């Protein structure tokens, strides 16, 4: 769709959404009045900046159904976040919402390389988490033979991949990586399976992780983006042809990038906070929802032929930037450094603690089977291991200006996840796992 035609469609749908939330959601009626927005004279895209932002806390404050714009008899499904910080955020769907969701997920599978006749192995978790059912109905909408495996049970998943011979797979990158490792431990080769493409999301992952997955499985590995507050998976996805940014389904989701401190728009190509307005949601539309995810956008058509705006990979989150002794760093910046070392496996955890008023970062990494066989019991104190450890420390200092402790483990020692990997444990204020404040259920 050409930009001019798309803009006209967005303009029309934005005005309809503003009217809907104003008349159906008291929260937005109050916010519009405070912002001086009159839906009857609202001019669409040119006045987008006048609309108020919506935050994660607004959803929690109106738990469970206070932001719904449809009567409950019209709402045929509910999903919710994990609620690890208290009450979960709840989202609802009408039948029309589910139809649109299936459509954008079907498009995503096509962009990843899917086609009619495929068997599709869906290893995203099913339940209140949106990942499993979102991709499931997208695959069925496309006419694929859908295998609803969900997460966990690596041995069973490996058996089904070998026996059913799916062409596509979906799941969190950390789980699919550990699934491949489980196959190799059993003497099997992931790269010899029938799989040709994989759709991975729900957690940040790097180009180095993509390379590891593609080499392990012999597939095209593409990144998918979504969050339950907006709809779930399918908001944006990479194409297998280019893998140069995620194509946003702009006829359903209006994207902005803002300075997280000022709320002002930033130029295309500049890093900022992603903001989405839903254009077709009925049960729970959101206006200018601040995702907390940091990315940039580019509007040039892709070499695959698609014309919708593309977003970069997620750089990090507004609220998960670590400040370690005055150095600002995102956990996602550390992964490429680890994965660039052939002796290290793509499994790691970051531990932040405070001692005597000073923050201390410990990076726990895992070596490969090949490297471990070469050093054996000298992993912790041997000269070869010390050289690798010192090289990694120097790389962190040179790249990020960051000093840290590095602890190397034997293969299999870093905990594996059945879903989203736990990469960061912050013990400065608590002795439990760190959960990002206002974290959307990305992917899902």
Automatic annotation (TrEMBL):
EC number of the protein: 6.2.1.30
Pathway as given in its UniProt record: Aromatic compound metabolism; phenylacetate degradation
Membership in a protein family: Belongs to the phenylacetyl-CoA ligase family.
Organism for this UniProt entry: Paenactinomyces guangxiensis
Classification of source organism: Bacteria, Bacillati, Bacillota, Bacilli, Bacillales
Molecular function GO labels: nucleotide binding; phenylacetate-CoA ligase activity
InterPro entries with a match to the protein in the record: Adenylate-forming_Reductase, AMP-bd_C_sf, AMP-dep_Lig_C, AMP-dep_synth/lig_dom, ANL_N_sf, PA_CoA_ligase
Pfam families associated with the record: AMP-binding (PF00501), AMP-binding_C_2 (PF14535)
Protein name: Phenylacetate-coenzyme A ligase
One GO BP: phenylacetate catabolic process
Keyword Ligase annotated: yes
Record's keyword annotation contains Transcription regulation: no
